[in-house]
Design goal:
- This protein is α/β, with parallel strands linked by helices.
- Helix content is 44%, strand content 15%.
- It contains 16 helices and ten strands.
- Strands 1, 2, 3, 4, 5, 6, 7, 8, 9 and 10 form a ten-stranded mixed sheet that branches.
- The structure holds fe (iii) ion (FE).
Length: 342
Amino acid sequence: MKKTIIFCLTTLILSSCADQAKKSNEVNLYSQRHYTVDEKQYEAFELETGIKVNVIKANADELIERLKNEGENSPADLFVSVDAGKLQKAGRLNLLQPLESSVINSNISEDLKDLNNLWVPITYRARIMVYSKDRVKVEELSTYSALTDAKWKNRVLVRSSSNAYNQALLSSIVANKGADYALSWATSLVNNFSRDPKGNDRDQVKAIAAGQGDIAIVNSYYIGLLLSSEKEEELKAGQSVGVFFPNQGENQSGSHINISGIGLAKNAPNKENAIKLVEFLTSESAQKRYVNTSYEYSVNPLVKPSAIVGSWGEFKRDSLDLNQLGVHRNTAIKIFDKSAWK
Ligand code: FE
């Protein structure tokens, strides 16, 4: 600090003094993520760089609202979301700035990148089907569309439509097949529900284990978490289901995926530290920590899935531009209301 002051005084460049004062050895995150792996990542980053990571957690819309209200005075450097749709929204509201780094650029699979460079993916996950190993044969499964067949009447489990994972899935269906089709799909699927939507993704798997339904739509990593759980009930639930990646046929879209991603805040006070953190999070070592702790997929092509997730095999992912998950979000929410998906 003393050096900085002397430097500023001797050069008399006042703007430079202000810049120096702003710089701290910290980086501030507004994060929607809710996984224990994140704390491990930030600890490892602090250890490596000496930069302290401060995290404010809330849901994505609350964080976006906060960024908007704080404007130029926002302390946030990075906005972290589990939904490309919310990152697209933050970008659309002019709350983000491009994240330029050749390190990040070379760390990430080409097809997962944001075309506008306003966010960087740090992990991805597939919204898959899981089925009762006792009551369903895997040959009976094919696409999200086929889940509306009468044969699945009173057998389908899925969480509420207020959940971002389902909103993103329906947004992808709107983007791929149009709003009319999306409405008929959602309405027919509701007809096949075995109960009113309740609980989270893990609860749908537990409901299959308890015989309350035969097939569920869930995020892939939750199955990894159940299968590695120390809780007997969770382990049993995970073991009672098989994993199926929908829409794998030649003319089909591939399974719906979404990313967890990071955007650089428009007014980031610690921009350099922020970029360093994203470089770290997309590196091989941090990506290994993600795949082995939260069972998500790596965005770095050098990093393989965990043993559990890898055992499900490779799959074709939907190549839709993930910004479309934000573009069609309001349409998807309206369709959910019309379809009576609670
Ligand atoms: Fe989650």
